[in-house]
Amino acid sequence: MPELRWLRVLVTVLAGAMVLGVTSIAAILWLRLSEPPLPVLPAGIALPAGTSPAAVTFARDWTVVVTDAGEILLFARDGSLKRRVPAD
Questions:
Q1: CB distance 62 to 76 below 8 Å
Q2: How confident is the model over 65-88, as pLDDT tens digits?
Q3: Based on the number of CB atoms within 10 Å of its own CB, is 64 exposed (0-12), middle (13-18) or buried (19 or more)?
Q4: Do residue 47 and residue 86 come from a single domain?
Q5: Residue 27 and residue 29: Cα distance in Å, rounded?
Q6: Which of 15, 20, 36, 45 is least enclosed, having the fewest CB within 10 Å?
Q7: Are 77 and 42 in contact (CB under 8 A)?
Q8: Could you tell me the residue range of the domain that residue 71 belongs to?
Q9: What is the total count of domains within the chain?
């Protein structure tokens, strides 16, 4: 019955490979989903009237807000508006 022994070894190796694959996928998901949360917006940020944010980016010294109209607003760390770049 050497054929059955070979089949038993093959099934055991395949089961081990499946366990390693599932463990790897779980580890990758855990690493990707446990990334640190986004930085906190300064409390003093107030968008100009009639604008709504489309995107927010955190730079080293700035918080950049892109409005839905395409205007770029640069806020300092304290939340004060430092520069407005109009949409093209």
A1: yes
A2: 999 989 999 998 888 889 999 887
A3: middle
A4: yes
A5: 5
A6: 36
A7: yes
A8: 40-88
A9: 2
